[in-house]
Amino acid sequence: MSQGIGYAVQDAFLENVRPVIMHEVLAGRRYAVIMPARNEERFVRRTLDCLARQTAPPSVCILVDDGSSDQTAAIAEEAAQDYAWLQVVRRPDRGMRKVGGGVIEAFYSGYDRINPKDYDYICKLDADITFGDDYFENILKKMEADPRLAAASGKVFNPSLGSDKLFEESIIDEQVSGAAKFYRRTAFESIGGFVQENMWDGIDFHRARMMGWKTRSFRDENLRILHYRLMGSSHKSVYHGRLRWGLGQWFMGTHPLYIFATGVYRMHERPFVIGGLLIIAGYFWGMLQGRPRYDDRRFRRHLHHWQLRRLRLGFLAPKLD
Fold it and tell me: What residue ranges define each of the domains in the chain, with the CATH number in brackets?
């Protein structure tokens, strides 16, 4: 047998064996989904049905109804009759929607119901998204292929009302969508989990990076997520959401030059121009009010180092330990 034929036979053998090996590896992996939900009666059943169709299904999903005033909890409890892996936890209505920290309070109401060490992966999932039937199988493959990958998601798209057009939510490849945070459990524990504050989904990303982990959102058709609310919007309006975004950036400790760049960049997204201006205004409103910031100076130094280097202003970046 010639060398060329030998390599061809070897490659063909490996091509057939790799999927079998990967299937066996994934079959032994367990992931838990925690799904905070508040007033999501329009979407929650669709999201749960997507989970039910997964080729790599969750070991458990705990849906935490965060004091909904609509039928979210009732719909979820009805679904739990069909899906043995689904549990529903009801939280009392706090009388208002607590942005940022509220969703993480609800997340931990579910997280505290499991023994994390029983699972290889932990996923925080929104109740207003849909995804393909093999979404979690493909995310698991990405995670298993790179032991340094702390968290991953696909890219997120907003359906346009009245048409088939999709608008991509703009996040850099290093970031993971807050709508579908799929974490390696050991990495999640090493960063201390999520902070119960606005910008929790920015702080976790930078803490993971500080500790030598990688995070990634993949541009892959098999990992496409449809999100039925615009990123950075709120229960009041998208304008309020953009202002809140800027306040969150102040809390996280973002560098002023970076917030200007962010605001200018976001002017090209809906709501055009005003949205970016409101992000900047929210940041400086927080500054003028003397609002508190995330109390970790080492984190802020690393954050500024990363942000200034992204702006190609590395000569201004603080030195790291």
Answer: 20-227 (3.90.550.10), 238-316 (no CATH)
Model pLDDT for residues 67-104, shown as the tens digit of each residue = 999 999 999 999 999 999 999 999 998 766 655 688 99
The closest of 316, 223, 214, 234 to 282, measured between CA atoms, is 234
Neighbours of 222 (CB within 10 A): 15
Q: What is the mean pLDDT of residues 279-297?
A: 96
Rounded Cα–Cα distance for residues 138 and 142 (Å) = 6
* Residue pair 201/181 in contact by the 8 Å Cβ criterion: yes
pTM of the complete model: 0.88
Q: Cα torsion at 239, 241, 245, 251 (round to 10°)?
A: 120
Question: Read out DSSP for 126-166?
Answer: -SSEEE-TTHHHHHHHHHHH-TTEEEEEE-EEEEPTTSS-E
- Name residue 272's amino acid: F
Alpha-carbon span 35 to 180, nearest angstrom: 10
